[in-house]
């Protein structure tokens, strides 16, 4: 069955420190991979996506993610976290094929940033 | 680009009434729109997928007579919660996608609607 696992429910980092949010997926076909961010009471904003090509993708707000097929992972990174990065982060996997091309979301990782 | 709006952002209603939520793609045509439900501190759960001009496809366990979805145009989908009850209180989020030449691309999400049923 298709699934997305975000092992860390809650992470706290100091402002200015580096960040890595983990995401592992289980998907039979070639996946499309996404990271979204959600601020409290808001919808989801796309940070970055991987469809094909270079396995290191750059996104908005200084985020990047690396697709590692051998590890079935798509971890999100940022070299220096800002207080405004505090939010909930969701990893999702989808496919271009199939009848719907639905997204499957992980359960999310809440990021807190301490001064 | 790729902006999706939802209206209203918040709604409070009495038990037994119906509530309509609109989802609009503002600067692109959405061949497919999705409706999600999100409980506090949880991930998004897909409720249904709608394609313009056809009936919505509901996920298992979602009552189609309870949650009526209409995708009348390439820029508008509506979700109507009929005879709402307190257990329907939740955060409802829509997303829209433009499928080009059969390829399913990125979903862009609306800001969500907070529904509270008293």
Can you walk through the features of this model?
The complex is a heterodimer of chains A (115) and B (118). Helix content of chain A is 0%, strand content 50%. By secondary structure, chain A is an all-beta fold. Chain A starts with a strand and ends with a strand. The mean pLDDT of chain A is 90. Chain B is mainly beta and 118 residues long. Helices cover 0% and strands 51% of the residues of chain B. Chain B has no helices and eleven strands. Chain B has strands at 4-7, 10-13, 19-25, 32-38, 44-51, 57-58, 67-73, 76-81, 90-97, 108-109, 113-117. In chain B, the strands form two sheets. In chain B, strands 2, 4, 5, 6, 9, 10 and 11 form a seven-stranded mixed sheet that branches. Chain B has a four-stranded antiparallel sheet with strand order 1-3-8-7, with no helix packed on it. Chain B is globular. The N and C termini of chain B lie far apart (37 Å).
Task: Annotate the secondary structure layout.
The complex is a heterodimer of chains A (115) and B (118).
Chain A: E1 3-5, E2 10-14, E3 19-21, E4 24-26, E5 32-38, E6 44-50, E7 56-58, E8 64-68, E9 73-78, E10 87-94, E11 104-105, E12 109-114
Parallel strand pairs in A: 2-12
Antiparallel strand pairs in A: 1-4, 3-9, 5-6, 5-10, 7-8, 8-9, 10-11, 10-12
Chain B: E1 4-7, E2 10-13, E3 19-25, E4 32-38, E5 44-51, E6 57-58, E7 67-73, E8 76-81, E9 90-97, E10 108-109, E11 113-117
Parallel strand pairs in B: 2-11
Antiparallel strand pairs in B: 1-3, 3-8, 4-5, 4-9, 5-6, 7-8, 9-10, 9-11
């Amino acid at each position: 069955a298709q699934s997305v696992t975000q092992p860390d429910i809650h992470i706290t980092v100091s402002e200015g420190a580096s960040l890595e949010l983990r995401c592992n997926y289980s998907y039979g076909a070639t996946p499309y991979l996404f990271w979204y961010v959600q601020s409290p009471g808001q919808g989801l904003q796309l940070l970055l996506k991987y469809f094909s090509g270079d396995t290191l993708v750059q996104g908005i707000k200084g985020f990047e993610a690396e697709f590692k097929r051998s590890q079935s992972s798509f971890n999100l990174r940022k070299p220096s976290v800002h207080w405004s990065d505090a939010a909930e982060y969701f990893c999702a996997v989808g496919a271009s094929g199939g009848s719907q091309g639905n997204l499957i979301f992980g359960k999310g990782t809440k990021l807190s940033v301490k001064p | 680009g790729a902006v999706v709006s939802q209206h209203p952002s918040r709604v409070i209603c009495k038990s037994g009434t119906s509530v309509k939520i609109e989802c609009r793609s503002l600067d692109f045509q959405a061949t497919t729109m999705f409706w999600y439900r999100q409980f506090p501190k949880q991930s998004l759960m897909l409720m249904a997928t709608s394609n313009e001009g056809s009936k919505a496809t509901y996920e298992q366990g979602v009552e189609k007579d309870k949650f009526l979805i209409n995708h009348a145009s390439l820029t508008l989908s509506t979700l109507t919660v009929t005879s709402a009850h307190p257990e329907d209180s939740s955060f409802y989020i829509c997303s829209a996608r433009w499928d080009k030449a059969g390829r399913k691309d990125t979903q862009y999400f609306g800001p969500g609607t907070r529904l509270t049923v008293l």
